[in-house]
Design goal:
The relative contact order is 0.16. 29% of the residues lie in helices and 11% in strands. The protein is built from 10 helices and 9 strands. Strand 4, helix 4 and strand 5 form a beta-alpha-beta unit.
Length: 280
């Protein structure tokens, strides 16, 4: 196997017995953080480990660094090793069909230099719809050592703030238009968006069945939003650096690689009330 963006359910099913494959169940509900772990305990893909968005895929919160800050890379790589991931493994992450935690794990693995990682296209629902096997059995994991190195695939709040008036840098917000416009805000204490940001709801990358749209459709959709701005000058954000990873993945599928993540995203931005906020 050598998948680096998405993999279909039939393709993954054919490789379940491959000893070089590691699967992660990333199911997560933002307003019900333990729902994913309960769903995993009840049923999951054969051999899948569970990745918790609040602990495994995020670091300690300070109240000023967002709701899902990046963990220290050494801590993340140690977690990968405990789950049997080394540089030889093909990793596949899945989530609910319209979820984004699997894309977060995809991005994080690439952040520490691991390219052989893909997201299950269509997610959990697509797997079930195809009538493919599930289990409640816990996998037997042989711990190993993951050796990687973090890459400059993200930017901090200082970078975003210093480029607010730079037309060559585009901040792309993956939240709903209502949240982006400041019409409502169900999670964070301030409504609105980073001044100058543009909006591309991450769910628009998917067809009605929860699978990603074809590369040419995704490419045209992003070009419509970004215009002539090159991918390496695009910074993705959302509420807390999770759903933004779906836009990063979609751009990669579309052949528009090289953009970066702002992990702190809106929840970090508004933690300091002196930072400017735009609405509309």
């Amino acid at each position: 196997m050598d998948y680096r963006t998405i993999v279909s359910a039939p393709e993954l099913h054919r490789s379940l017995a491959d000893p070089g494959l590691v699967i992660f169940d990333c199911r997560h509900e933002l307003m019900n953080p333990e729902a994913g772990a309960r769903a995993y305990a009840q049923s999951h893909l054969p051999g899948a480990r569970f990745a918790h968005s609040e602990t495994d895929l995020a670091g300690p919160k300070t109240g000023r660094n967002g709701r899902h800050p990046l963990p220290h890379p050494d801590a993340f790589m140690a977690w990968l090793g405990r789950n049997g991931v080394d540089s030889s493994k093909q990793v596949v992450a899945y989530d609910f069909a319209a979820g984004s935690a699997s894309a977060r794990l995809w991005w994080m693995l690439r952040w520490v230099g691991h390219e052989r990682v893909a997201v299950l296209d269509g997610g959990w629902e697509g797997w079930i719809e195809a009538g493919l096997p599930t289990t409640a059995e816990q996998p037997r994991i042989a711990p190993t050592t993951f050796k990687g190195a973090p890459r400059p695939t993200w930017v901090d709040v200082a970078f975003v703030q210093s480029h607010l008036d730079d037309p060559s840098v585009v901040v792309l917000d993956a939240r709903t238009p209502e949240r982006f416009q400041g019409l409502m805000e169900p999670i964070d204490p301030v409504a609105g968006h980073i001044p100058g940001a543009r909006n591309r709801l991450f769910k628009e990358n998917l067809n009605a069945d929860g699978r990603f749209k074809p590369p040419h459709e995704l490419k045209q959709a992003f070009l419509n939003v970004l215009g002539s701005v090159r991918p390496e000058h695009v910074v993705h954000q959302c509420g807390s650096g999770v759903s933004a990873c779906s836009n990063l993945l979609a751009m990669e599928i579309a052949g528009l690689g090289g953009s970066r993540l702002y992990p702190g995203s809106w929840s970090e931005w508004v933690a300091d009330r002196s930072r400017p906020v735009a609405k509309g």
